[in-house]
Amino acid sequence: MLLYKAVSDQSIYDICLMTYGSFDYLSKLVFDNMENIDSTILVGQEFSWDETLATDQNSNQTLINNNLTITTL
């Protein structure tokens, strides 16, 4: 399990894409880390996720290596 720290203006959907690479594990991410999907995401809030479930580990590693984040408004 790895930890991901949320940044400004990220939603749970952004965090799901940053970690798992798709929405396939959105319910797992919410269940493991939040009371419900509508909970407010705070800057610096940590989310645990299972890196072995990432749909595309190369894309995930590219985001991490290049210090890129997904944020949608």
Set down the secondary structure blueprint:
Blueprint (H helix, E strand, L loop, with lengths): L1 E4 L6 H8 L6 H8 L12 E4 L7 H9 L8
Antiparallel strand pairs: 1-2
Quick structural overview:
With 73 residues, this protein is of the alpha+beta class.
- The CATH architecture can be named as Roll
Low-confidence stretches: none
Q: What fold name goes in the CATH topology slot?
A: Membrane-bound Lytic Murein Transglycosylase D, Chain A
Cα radius of gyration in angstroms:
11 Å
What is the N-to-C succession of helices and strands? EHHEH
CATH class annotation: Alpha Beta
Which band does the percent of strand residues land in? 5-15%
DSSP E strands, number: 2
What does the average pLDDT come to?
86
Shape: globular
Strand order in the sheet with the most strands: 1-2
Number of helices: 3
Number of separate structural domains: 1
Strand-pairing-aware structural class: alpha+beta
What is the helix fraction of residues, given as a range?
25-40%
Terminal Cα separation, in Å? 28 Å
Biggest pleated-sheet summary? 2 strands, antiparallel
Structure in words:
This protein has 73 residues and is α+β, with helices and mostly antiparallel strands. The chain has a single domain, classed as Membrane-bound Lytic Murein Transglycosylase D, Chain A (Roll). 34% of the residues lie in helices and 11% in strands. The chain contains 3 helices and 2 strands. A two-stranded antiparallel sheet has the order 1-2. The radius of gyration is 11 Å and the shape is globular. The model has no long low-confidence stretch (mean pLDDT 86).
